[in-house]
Structures are given as structure tokens and as C-alpha cells.
UniProtKB/TrEMBL annotation:
The keyword Transcription regulation is annotated on this UniProt entry: no
InterPro entries to which the protein is assigned, alphabetical: FAD/NAD-bd_sf (IPR036188), FAD/NAD-binding_dom (IPR023753), FAD/NAD-linked_Rdtase_dimer_sf (IPR016156), Pyr_nuc-diS_OxRdtase (IPR001100), Pyr_nucl-diS_OxRdtase_dimer (IPR004099)
Residues given in the record as NAD(+) binding sites: G178, T179, G180, V181, I182, G183, L184, E185, G268
Organism from which the protein derives: Duganella callida
Name of protein: Dihydrolipoyl dehydrogenase
Cofactor binding description: Binds 1 FAD per subunit.
């Protein structure tokens, strides 16, 4: 086995690892980037980009159906599954190609291929070929989709989102388990592309929402279009001919067995921290096995080990992976003189239709941090002018602000243009704007943002009428 010595070792060449590598190099340190799989990142290869490509095809199909609502009739709609998947894969490969080119430009001596595992706090073993001795480390190992063993036992038709982007045709049917972001984005896209889709939710959650009123509207919006079975557990998955027999049980104990070509497990992703030898580092870890770390510096305890991206499970999204990686790489180079990096206001967008966006503090978080001390304003998009014009008048926005200071704290929404409204409101939170100042901003006509103004006016009204109670929070019904 050969031994390599370096100042900084980065484990994982995804988004977090690549930004970490560049930051550590910019800090003047000799840096080694270790990757066990192919280059290209989860985001480009099997994440953000191919999923949005599939959704774009689904939107095109949906527009043809929706057009009849305007009196415009498209004739018979034909979906060519092979052509849909060919475009998804070829455009995806283009995005992956750009990432692979970036990595190819890194000096050969900065890259090592193989699975890294800590043997001690300053030592890694990579496969069975190399020992790496380093002064500082960045763990940027990403996450893996969860598939329960009892489902996996039913064979290769039980899949995760990774497999969807390798299809060369659309299947006849898919059972999707999970109403998180992945289950809803992919489930809706496949349904719009003519696949028979049933989405099973063991509870009542919808993507990242926590506000009970928005959740209720979201459940209705999803159920209006899709076969979503809330409060229905998948209790058995068995091989059946070429496909699967899926048995589910609803809240009333009613069982049902149905056949599907595939079962897509979308029940969450687990951070890749379990085959890393972390027990040999002396780091303190939480009950999920993730090292305790500082969210401003990404430093694990006071060690020379930093953790970034999906691996720390804080906000498993692409922009966060990039920010974490930059902070971790920069601080690995500076160690022991670490400094807080730029953390931004939380913003999460689900590319369902209607889109779902949450920004700033969530309703559930405010019930803990501001019990009885925050006001809520809202707007339904049902009668919102521009939304009705576009036939996209479904959804609700709820906005939150602090009594006394009037500071805008956050919002949750499902509705039209949520990806844009999400940015607008996240910027307002990060700028620390009070609601009055937001209402002084320009609003054009007729725009969906006028709905935001209605919600803010409602919020401003409630801010003036703080209830005369000290606690507990009267508006804090727990999210289901
Ligand atoms: C279907 C899907 C859709 C998504 N859509 C969006 C979206 O629209 N917007 C958004 O913001 N986010 C989205 N995400 C989330 C986003 O893709 C991830 O948050 C982000 O890619 C995580 O980056 P990362 O660098 O932490 O991990 P990764 O890119 O997964 O990189 C981790 C790397 O570490 C390597 N590795 C692991 N263990 C080891 C080891 N021991 N030794 C060496 N190498 C190792 C892995 O092979 C991998 O290459 C989506 C995710 C999925 C799955
Ligand atoms: N647009 C985006 O930004 C985007 C898109 C896709 C993924 N992502 C990221 O990927 C992460 C993972 O997505 P995800 O959808 O897999 O996870 P998730 O955590 O968002 O949702 C998992 C869902 O599965 C349910 N669930 C958990 N265990 C279950 C079980 N045993 N049986 C049935 N249901 C179960 C949960 O209640 C939840 O509804 C997200 O947190 C997100 O950050 C982001």
C-alpha cells in the first residue's frame, strides 16, 4: 500500500467537495480530492438537473391538457416515452460533462480514486491501495436514498430516484412511497407523462411544509390531480410476474393489493457517514452518527475535521452544499484560526405544480422560538387576479412577522410562481425588513406579487392587534 501526505484531504467530489477543494486551494494548501464513484455530482447526474428535465417534459404535456380550459384544443396528445427519456438523459449528460471537465482540469496529483475511511484522526485508508496522512479533512460524502430491506428483497423493480434517470422509456405504472420533495416532484411528473402513478403517504406531510393551513391546501391541490393516498402505509412488497404486488393499509385498517411495474422508494436520504470509520476519529456524534459541528464554521468540535453538504443533513440542497463546502474548505486551510462563513436565509423550493416554497423561519420553528410572539397574515390564490387569468389560481401563502418589531420572519406557500416569490421573501428576511417597509416597495399590476401584498397587508393588520396573552402560542396547532 502506498502512502500519500497532504495538508487537506477532501472526501467526496460532489458539489460540497468541489467547492471545498477550490476554497482549500485558494487558501494556499496542498489539497487531495478523494472520490469513490464517478465524477459528475449527485445534482447533475441524478438530482436537481435530470429531475427538472423530467418535470419540464411533464409541464409541456400538462400545458396541452390545460389549454382546453382557455378554449384552446390541442388534439390528441401523444407522449413518446423514449424521446422524453432520451432528452432527459442527453441534456443531463451535457450538464454532467461540464462538471467532469472541471474536475479534469484539476492537477492529477490532487485527485485520488477510491472509498476513504478514517483509521485515526489524521489518517485515511483509500480502498486497499493508499494510506493518506493529512493535517485537515473535509467530509463531503453526500447522502444515499433509503430503501427498507423488506422492500429491497422484492428485487430490482424496487428503485430509488437514481434509477429513474437511466430509463430509456417511460414505464406503465409506478408506486411512489413518500410525499417528500422527491416523491411529489417525480410522482407528479411521471403522472403527467401518462404513467399510472399512485403516491403513498404514511401520514399527511407535503414536501417541506409545516404550516397546518398551507398543508391542508397543499393536500387538496395534490389530491385534486394525483392519486395520493394520505395516511396509507405500504405493508408488503412482493415480486409479481415482471412487476410488483404492493399491499397498502389505510387509516381505517383497510388493506389493498395492487400491481405496479416499479416501486419508487422516496422516503428520505441518509447521510453517508456510516462507512467512514468515524469511530476512529474521536469525534462526538449525534444519534444519527453525524459528527457534532458548528453551523457557522462547519468544524467538528475543535478538531481539524470539517463536514459539508448532505453529509451533515442540515439542509440537503444544492446551494447549501456549495456554501458549506466553501466554508469548510476555507476553514480547513485556515485551521486552527477558523472563522464563521456566510450562511444565508433558508429557502427551499419544490418544483411541483403548484410549486411549494418555504423561506426564513418555518411555522413549526416559530412555534418553538416565538410562541405567542409572531403574527400571521395570509392570502388564498383562489381569487387572486393574475393567478385566475393564468388558470393557476390554486394555493395559499402564509407570512409571519414578530410582534413589536414588525420584523418579517418567514413564510410558507403553495401556489403560482412560488420559486420567484420564495426568493423575494427570503431576501426580505435576510435584509431584516419590517413588514411596513416591504409594503412600501413597488408592486406592478396585474401580477401574482399583488397576492403577496394582500398577505402582507393582512399581516400588518394582525401586527397592530397583538393578543393580550403571555403564552402559550394560540396559533400553534401541531403540523401533522
Ligand atoms: C432527485 C433529486 C432531486 C434534487 N433536486 C434538487 C433541486 O432541485 N434543488 C436543490 O437545491 N437540491 C436538489 N437536490 C439535492 C441536491 O442534489 C443535493 O443536496 C446535493 O447534490 C448534495 O451535494 P453533496 O456535495 O453534499 O453530495 P454529492 O454530490 O452526493 O457528493 C458526495 C460524493 O461523495 C462521494 N463519497 C461518498 N462516500 C465516500 C467515501 N467514503 N470516499 C470517497 N468518496 C465518497 C460520493 O460518491 C459522491 O460523489 C436533489 C436531490 C435529488 C436526489
Ligand atoms: N427541489 C428540491 O430542492 C429538491 C428536490 C428533490 C430532493 N431534494 C432534497 O432531497 C432530500 C430528500 O428528499 P426525499 O423526498 O427523499 O425526502 P424527504 O425527507 O423530503 O421526504 C420523505 C418522505 O417520506 C416519508 N417517509 C419516511 N419514512 C417513511 C416510510 N417508512 N414509509 C412511508 N413514508 C415514509 C416522510 O414522511 C416524508 O414525507 C430533501 O430533503 C431535499 O432537501 C430537494
Amino acid at each position: 500500500m502506498k502512502t500519500l501526505r497532504t495538508q487537506v484531504a477532501i472526501i467526496g467530489a460532489g458539489t460540497a467537495g468541489m467547492t471545498g477543494y477550490r476554497a482549500a486551494k485558494a487558501g494556499g494548501k496542498q489539497t487531495l480530492l478523494i472520490e469513490s464513484n464517478v465524477y459528475g455530482t449527485t445534482c447533475a447526474r441524478v438530482g436537481c438537473m435530470p429531475s427538472k428535465l423530467l418535470i419540464a417534459a411533464a409541464d409541456a404535456a400538462h400545458m396541452l391538457h390545460a389549454a382546453s380550459g382557455f378554449g384552446v384544443h390541442a388534439g390528441e396528445v401523444r407522449i413518446d416515452g423514449k424521446a422524453v427519456m432520451a432528452r432527459v438523459r442527453s441534456e443531463r449528460d451535457r450538464f454532467v460533462g461540464f462538471v467532469v471537465e472541471s474536475v479534469a482540469a484539476y492537477p492529477a496529483e490532487d485527485k485520488l480514486h477510491g472509498h476513504a475511511r478514517f483509521l485515526g484522526p489524521t489518517r485515511l485508508q483509500v480502498d486497499d491501495h493508499t494510506l493518506v496522512e493529512a493535517e485537515r479533512f473535509v467530509i463531503a460524502t453526500g447522502s444515499t436514498p433509503i430503501v427498507p430491506d423488506e422492500w429491497r428483497a422484492a428485487g430490482p423493480r424496487v428503485i430509488t430516484s437514481d434509477a429513474v434517470f437511466d430509463w430509456d422509456d417511460l414505464p406503465a405504472s409506478v408506486a411512489v412511497v413518500g410525499t417528500g420533495v422527491i416523491g411529489l416532484e417525480l410522482g407528479q411528473a411521471l403522472a403527467r407523462l401518462g404513467v399510472r402513478v399512485t403516491i403513498f403517504a404514511r401520514g399527511g406531510s407535503v414536501a417541506q411544509l409545516s404550516d397546518p393551513e398551507v398543508l391542508e391546501v397543499a393536500r387538496r391541490a395534490m389530491s385534486d390531480e394525483l392519486d395520493v393516498r394520505f395516511k396509507t402505509k405500504v405493508i408488503k412488497v412482493e415480486q409479481h410476474g415482471d412487476g410488483l404486488a404492493v399491499t397498502s393499509e389505510d387509516a381505517g385498517g383497510q388493506q389493498r393489493t395492487e400491481q405496479f411495474a416499479y416501486l419508487l422508494s422516496a422516503i428520505g436520504r441518509r447521510p453517508n457517514v456510516h462507512q467512514l470509520g468515524l469511530e476512529n476519529t474521536g469525534l462526538q456524534r449525534d444519534h444519527h452518527g453525524i459528527p457534532l459541528y458548528d453551523q457557522q464554521t462547519m468544524q467538528c468540535g475543535d478538531s481539524a475535521i470539517f463536514i459539508a453538504g448532505d453529509a451533515n443533513d442540515e439542509r440537503p440542497q444544492l446551494p447549501e452544499a456549495a456554501d458549506h463546502g466553501r466554508i469548510a474548505g476555507d476553514n480547513a486551510a485556515r485551521y486552527p484560526e477558523v472563522k464563521p462563513g456566510l450562511r444565508r436565509t433558508p429557502l427551499a423550493i419544490s418544483f411541483t405544480e403548484p410549486q411549494i416554497a418555504t423561506m426564513g423561519a418555518s411555522y413549526a420553528e416559530l412555534c418553538v422560538s416565538h410562541p405567542g410572539r409572531f403574527a400571521v397574515g395570509k392570502v388564498s390564490f383562489h381569487n387572486q387576479g393574475r393567478s385566475r387569468v393564468m388558470l393557476q389560481n390554486k394555493g395559499m401563502l402564509r407570512v409571519y412577522a414578530e410582534y413589536q418589531s414588525g420584523r418579517f420572519l418567514g413564510a410558507e406557500m403553495i401556489g403560482p410562481r412560488a420559486e420567484n416569490i420564495g426568493h423575494l421573501l427570503a431576501w426580505a428576511v435576510q435584509a431584516g425588513l419590517p413588514v411596513d417597509a416591504m409594503l412600501d416597495m413597488p408592486f406592478y399590476h396585474p401580477v401574482v406579487e399583488e397576492g403577496v401584498r394582500t398577505a402582507l397587508r393582512d399581516l400588518a393588520h394582525h401586527l397592530k392587534h397583538e393578543p393580550a396573552h403571555d403564552c402559550p402560542c394560540v396559533d400553534c396547532t401541531p403540523a401533522p
